[in-house]
C-alpha cells in the first residue's frame, strides 16, 4: 500500500512538472513561431514586417536591422515572400538556395565551383547575422601597451 502511494505521488509530481514546463514555454515565448496564418490576421501590416517582429521576435528583427540586408533595405518579402501569397514568391520561413540565387548567382557559382552544390546557404551564411562591416566593430584587446 505504501509503495502505491509513493508511485502515485511520483507520477503526479512528474505530470505537474511536465505541465508546468509546457505552460512556462507557452507563456514565455508566445510569438516565436512565424506562420503565414498569423500574418493574415492583420493584412494592413503585411508589408511592414519589422514593426511587428521588433515586438514579437526582437532578436531576429535586430539581427536583420544590423545585417547587410537590413542596412541596404532588402525587405523581408524579397526573400520570405508575402504572407498573403500575392507576391512573386510563396511565403516561407526559411528561404532556399533558389531564392538566394536570384541576387547572389555569381557568388553561388563561385561557391559551387569551390565546395560543390549545397541545398542550403544559411548553414554557413546566416541571413540575418551577416554584419555590414564584418568584424570591424568587434572589441579587440590592444596588442601592446601605449602611453599617451
For the structure shown, list the relevant keywords:
148 residues; mainly alpha; elongated
General description of the model:
With 148 residues, this protein is mostly helical. Helices cover 51% and strands 0% of the residues. It has helices spanning 2-28, 36-39, 49-56, 58-66, 68-71, 76-80, 97-115. The protein is elongated. The chain starts with a helix and ends in a 33-residue tail after the last helix.
Alpha-beta content class? mainly alpha
Separation of the first and last Cα atoms: 81 Å
Q: For this entry, what is the oligomeric state of its chains?
A: single chain
How many strand segments? 0
Number of helices: 7
Uncertain residue segments: 136-142
As a percent range, the share of helical residues equals 40-55%
Q: Given the C-alpha coordinates, what overall shape results? A: elongated
Average pLDDT reading: 75
Q: Main sheet, how many strands, which sense, barrel?
A: none
- Which series of helices and strands comes N to C? HHHHHHH
Strand content range: under 5%
Report Rg: 23 Å
